[in-house]
Amino acid sequence: MLANIFWIVIALLGFGLLIMAHEFGHCIAAKRGGVQVDEFWIGMGPKLLQKQVGETTYCLCLLPIGGACVMSGEDQESDNPRAFGNAKWLTRFIILVAGVVMNFILGFVILLCLSWNIQQEAVPVIAQFAEGFSSQGEQGLMEGDRILKIDGYRIFTGSDVSEGLRRGASDGKFDFVLERDGQKIQVNGVELANDLDLGDGRKGYGLYFEVEDLTLTGHLRYALVLAVNDIRMVWHSLGDLITGAVGVDQLSGPVGVVAVTAQTAQAGALPFWSLLAFISINLGVMNLLPIPGLDGGRILFLLVEGIRRKPLDRKLEGYVNLAGLCALFALILYVTGQDIMRLL
Fold it and tell me: Which residues form the Peptidase M50 domain (predicted)?
C-alpha cells in the first residue's frame, strides 16, 4: 500500500512538473512583455506557502496537479496600461503560445537526455531480408533501399516502419516511396504480412535494417524525430477520435494519466521519463486546439482580432471561454468516472 502511494506521489510530481513548465512559459513571457502578473501558482487547492515578490504573489499549493499564471485584465476590460488586454497584439500572441512552446521544449530536452543511453540507431535502409521473404526484386523491395514513405506515412527511423505498416493498407498491399541508387521511386502493391517465421517462435515482416552509431548531431536529430513521432501519435489519435475509430469512453483523464504514470514509474526511470516527454508534448498539442478555454481558443480569438484589426468584445470572449471551460470540465468529469470504473 505504501509502495503504491509512493509511486502515485512520484507520478503526481511528474505531472505537476509539466503543468508548472507550461505556466512558467506564460509567466516569463508576460513579464518580459511588460504585462502585470498578479499571481503564479504551483499546484492547485489549499495554499501551503505564499510569498509576495514585487507585484506577483507566488503560491505553493497542496495538490501538485496543476498551476496558473494570473495576469491582470485577461478576460475583462481594464484601465491598467500593463493589463494583458491592453498589451500589443504580438506581445499577447507570444504570451499565449509560450506555454505550449515550453511543453515542446521540455519534451524535447527529456528525449535528448534519454537519447544518451542509446549509442546506435536503426535507420530505414534495408540491410537484408528474412528467409522466405517474397516481395523482392525490381517490382518489390531490394537491399539498400531507403524507405521514405509507406502509404503516405513518413518514415524517419527503422522503428517507424512498423507503425507505418500498422497504419497502412488493411489488405496487406502497401505503396512504398523509396530511395534507390540515389533516386526516389515509388513501388506500389508490395505484399507484406506480419506472419513470417523469424525463429524462436517470433513472427514479423522479415525486414532487417542497417544500424548507425549516434554522433552529437545524431543525438539531436534522434531526439527531434522522437518528438515529431510523439506529435504525430497525438494527431493521429485525435483523428481516430473524430472519425469514431476511438470512442470517447477510451479517453483518460487525470486519474487515468496518473495511474498509468505511476505504473510506468515502477518499470524504471527510462520508461517513466519517456512517458513524461510524451505527455508534455501531448499537452502542447492539445493546448493548441482551437477550443474555447484552451490556449488555442484564445489564440484563435487573437487571430480573428488581427484580421479584423480591432479588438473583440472582451465580455463576449470571456463568456465563450467560460463556456468552453465548463464543457472541458464536464468532459474531464466523464473521463475521470471512466478511469475510476476501469481501476475498480
Answer: 11-331
Of 156, 185, 213, which closes a domain? 213
Residue 288 has pLDDT above 80, yes or no: yes
Question: 146: domain range?
Answer: 120-213
Residue 30 lies in a domain: yes
CB atoms within 10 A of CB 80: 12
Neighbours of 108 (CB within 10 A): 20
pLDDT at 210 over 90: yes
Q: How far is CA 77 from the centre of its chain?
A: 34
**The pLDDT of residue 90:** 94
Same domain for 146 and 52, yes or no, is no
Active-site hit among 23, 74, 121, 317: 23
- If asked whether residues 149 and 92 sit together in one domain, one would say no
Closest CA to 27 of 46, 42, 44: 42
The reported pLDDT for the residue numbered 80 is 87
Are 255 and 263 within 8 A, CB to CB?
no
Report how far apart, in Å, the C-alpha atoms of 302 and of each of 27, 52, 91, 293, 310 are: 18, 31, 11, 13, 10
Structure-model confidence comparison of residues 328 and 280, the more confident one: 280
Consecutive H or E run containing 187: strand 183-191
Q: Mark whether 210 is an active-site residue.
A: no
Residue 158 CA to residue 145 CA, distance in Å, equals 12
- Whether 181 contacts 145, CB under 8 Å: no
Q: Could you tell me if 136 and 109 lie in one domain?
A: no
- Considering 165, 197, 213, which residue would you say is the last residue of a domain? 213
Separation between Cα atoms, residue 172 and residue 20, nearest integer Å: 45
Q: Is the same domain home to 127 and 83? A: no
Question: Rounded to whole angstroms, what are the CA distances from 337 to 167, 249, 286, 330, 332?
Answer: 30, 10, 21, 11, 8
Report residue 340 as a C-alpha cell.
475510476
Same domain, yes or no, for 17 and 96?
yes
The pLDDT value given to residue 3: 59
pTM for the whole structure = 0.85
Same domain, yes or no, for 59 and 98? yes
